Amino acid sequence: MALDLLKKIQHPSQDRTNPTRDSLASFSFSMQHFKGLLSSITSLLFIALFSFEASAEAINPKPILNEKAMLFDARKRETGTFSLKPYKAVYEAEYQESIIPITVTGTRRFRPTNKGYWELSFKADTMLADLNEFAPIRIQGSQLIPDKYLYKTTGVASEYFEHVFNWGQHKVFDVKKDRFWNIRLIPGTQNNISYQEQMRQDIKAGKKAFSYPVAYRGKLKTYEFKVVGEETIDTKLGRVKCIKIEQLLNKYNKLTTFIWLSIKHDYTLVKINQKRGGKPAQEIRIQSLEFYSEVD
What we know:
single chain, 296 residues, 15-stranded antiparallel sheet, two-stranded antiparallel sheet, 2 helices, 17 strands, 47% strand, disordered N terminus
């Protein structure tokens, strides 16, 4: 919009316990701000900003792990009420709240493997640091089931963590800290980027409102969205008709987020726009899109 496609980048005077809450205030803080920007690009602005803690019931039934339901065709596989298509999308994200606007380009891939699962990844390379996100996902019916989430940055903003979803015990294991989180996985729980793909499939199924429990950094939160209508916009792919989505935030947050998914391009994300107090904050726009047949 998770999905990551920018996360919130706050000013240095605010809480910085989450690396996605950094912003560019001066050159002396450039390393911290660059790290925040990378995290922002990672989740493509889909991450819920100051969203509510997960308290509502999950919207999907408890996943039943059936291996036969998780084998896929390399080109296209019908899975319940939706179909999956492998793709590669390149995005350009601009952070507009700094003195000098910052732009970063990243690539997102979603593809099947010959190991019986789908692979969702995001990568951004820059002169100062590189970022990689990776999430193997299994499918049952209309539900995406995440098994793992890996986040890694190298360079001036080095960080690594890996979360393993243990559905049998309803727990998440933190590989780096060698311990389970103190939360219980509930049906329909997604990771920081898998919920973005789940949203695309829910749109295809005709849903107008979405609520996703998301497990990230030891917490379980609920991210909420609603369809506000259709809108035709200009993109690098041409002029496209889109489903426009709004992210629902709590009343204390002045940040508004709108997301555009191209109907013609299998409801792929083509634009995200955020404003804070009516002023531009950050924006993502698609640069290129390729649907393909590929199995690893």
